[in-house]
Design a protein that fits this description.
Elements (H helix, E strand, L loop, with lengths): L6 H19 L4 E2 L1 H8 L3 H9 L5 E2 L3 E3 H12 L5 E6 L3 H8 L8 E8 L8 E2 L2 E5 L3 H8 L3 E4 L3 H14 L3 E4 L12 E4 L2 H9 L4
Parallel strand pairs: 4-5, 4-8, 5-7, 8-9, 9-10
Antiparallel strand pairs: 1-3, 2-3, 6-7
Length: 205
């Protein structure tokens, strides 16, 4: 039976990859679990344990070759390729997400933007023409898209999610402030700034 990697371990891999990218930009060729730990606030033992799930990427006393470790983590996370994304919602938030330039060099590309508002359908966000919702299902199926982002009001999010799942989407990044009900083989990640703010205010004096 293949080893099941804990999700908490998977969640740290992109953080390691981001740190390695920064080290590369700073001109470093080699790093260590100790150096990564100092930068990330994670123990070096935890970093070594996380990476050991996927093989031996470094050598005792010599550390990790940054280009090699970056390539290996990209393969583990399957971002050595570009993933096309369908973005649903062209309001203020969707507009900002569509214009964000940070996806392209990290394995993702927004390919289509959808909305159902008459004043948004047919409009352009940079190079994107906003498509009507009645083309959502066929576009996803025809282009074999597997990832979507939801940036619609909470009351519409579950309806959108149902369409996405039916069309074959298997990963959803949800900006709407609501928990979605999806099949067990569909991964959902939630981004709600208010939740994080409320978590932080607990610790304020």
């Amino acid at each position: 039976m293949p080893t099941i990697i804990p999700d908490i371990v998977i969640s740290r891999l992109p953080i390691y990859l981001r740190a390695l990218e920064r080290l590369s930009q700073e001109g470093h060729e080699v790093t260590s679990s100790h150096e990564l730990g100092k930068r990330l606030g994670i123990s070096s033992a935890q970093i070594r344990k996380d990476l050991s799930h996927f093989g031996g990427f470094g050598k005792q006393g010599t550390g990790y070759r940054i280009p090699y470790l970056k390539d290996q983590l990209r393969q583990v996370l399957k971002v050595e390729q570009d993933w096309e994304i369908a973005l649903i919602g062209a309001g203020d938030l969707g507009n900002a997400v569509a214009r964000y330039r940070g996806f392209a060099d990290r394995g993702f590309r927004i390919a289509y933007v959808f909305d159902n508002a008459p004043d948004k359908v047919g409009a352009h966000i940079d190079d994107f023409e906003v498509l009507p919702m009645d083309r959502l299902h066929e576009t996803i199926v025809h282009n074999s898209i597997r990832i979507a982002m939801i940036a619609v009001p909470a009351e519409a999010a579950q309806i959108v999610a149902d369409i996405l799942v039916e069309a074959g989407i298997r990963a959803i990044l949800n900006y709407a402030p609501i928990n979605l009900v999806v099949p067990s083989d569909v991964r959902v990640q939630y981004i709600d700034p208010v939740i994080h703010l409320q978590r932080m205010t607990y610790y304020l004096p």
